[in-house]
């Protein structure tokens, strides 16, 4: 059995469970369940705090886990990122009171509040900035107003929380984070390679199915080269003959994002009967 850690709460919990369900794995229906065995797929899921997942996997107790890249780096655990999962995207950024116009160099000797001291420490050390880190559990945006910090380093998604706290971003993003799949160190006991490959292929299939759509259209054969250039597919488009003389049918995968303008371009070129279909699953 593969032992896989899944976030039990927080921003990554629901998207991780949804992705695993779409990949054909059983997921818990009761949020109080701590373990779920998926007999058919030979997998055991352990529902743990996202922050602890890299620790369990890094210690080699569990084979694999889903966590945030920021949490993996903050933990300094010996777990290894093997796949980005395309959900829970955020940036880890500095912020200070609006109008304060801070730069990275201004942080010298200042107090910086964060829930990710392990991540921040390394970043500041690499840039030769000495500051005092104030370790808080959450709601870090309130720390400046409450007088315990001069600046913060925190997770930003939409920026709404920052704005509400009267803060503004400064400096370059410290990290671009998202949900990731981590594995235990290669020095620990081996992970069943076949089981691991099945899991990663299934997850990649979900990612592709979410990112691409299938496009079908009919086009005069004389325009095929120009149409194929618009829809090159992943390998190459499938071309089938049509009963109508001089016409062919084309099928290709195209990025889901921007498929409407692509349909306009194909129509303008002379394509007709343009159909777009969502993918339920795929294995490339
Ligand atoms: N608003 C958000 N949008 C996207 N990802 C987020 C957001 N907030 C947190 N994350 C990501 O989710 C992961 C876990 O953060 P989360 O907030 O769920 O845990 P936590 O702060 O330890 O727990 P809690 O907020 O429940 O106390 C991190 O990788 C983080 O980058
Ligand atoms: O940019 P935004 O879209 O506003 O999202 C970012 C906020 O979301 C997270 O908070 P969470 O709800 O996890 O609370 P926490 O600070 O207590 O962890 C994060 O810590 C930020 O505060
Ligand atoms: Mg949080």
From TrEMBL:
Q: Which cofactor does it need?
A: Mg(2+)
Say which species the protein is native to: Brooklawnia cerclae
SUPFAM superfamilies (UniProt xref): GlnB-like, Periplasmic binding protein-like II
Query: By what name is this protein known?
Result: ATP phosphoribosyltransferase
Protein family (similarity comment): Belongs to the ATP phosphoribosyltransferase family. Long subfamily.
Please give the CDD domains that the UniProt record associates with this protein.
PBP2_HisGL1
Domain ATP phosphoribosyltransferase catalytic, by residue range, is 49-204
All copies of domain Histidine biosynthesis HisG C-terminal, residue ranges = 209-280
Q: How is its activity regulated?
A: Feedback inhibited by histidine.
Q: In which pathway does it act?
A: Amino-acid biosynthesis; L-histidine biosynthesis; L-histidine from 5-phospho-alpha-D-ribose 1-diphosphate: step 1/9
Tell me the superkingdom of the source.
Bacteria
| Gene this chain is encoded by | hisG
Output one GO MF annotation.
Answer: ATP phosphoribosyltransferase activity
Check the record and name the InterPro entries matching this protein: ATP-PRT_HisG_long (IPR020621), ATP_PRibTrfase_cat (IPR013820), ATP_PRibTrfase_CS (IPR018198), ATP_PRibTrfase_HisG (IPR001348), HisG_C (IPR013115), N-reg_PII-like_a/b (IPR011322), N-reg_PII/ATP_PRibTrfase_C (IPR015867)
Query: Where can this protein be found?
Result: Cytoplasm
Q: Which reaction does it catalyse?
A: 1-(5-phospho-beta-D-ribosyl)-ATP + diphosphate = 5-phospho-alpha-D-ribose 1-diphosphate + ATP
Role summary: Catalyzes the condensation of ATP and 5-phosphoribose 1-diphosphate to form N'-(5'-phosphoribosyl)-ATP (PR-ATP). Has a crucial role in the pathway because the rate of histidine biosynthesis seems to be controlled primarily by regulation of HisG enzymatic activity.
Q: Which UniProt keywords apply?
A: Amino-acid biosynthesis, ATP-binding, Cytoplasm, Glycosyltransferase, Histidine biosynthesis, Magnesium, Metal-binding, Nucleotide-binding, Transferase
Q: By its UniProt entry, which HAMAP family does this protein fall under?
A: HisG_Long
PROSITE patterns assigned to the protein according to its UniProt record, in alphabetical order = ATP_P_PHORIBOSYLTR
Entry EC no(s): 2.4.2.17
Its main subcellular localisation, reduced to a broad class, is cytoplasm
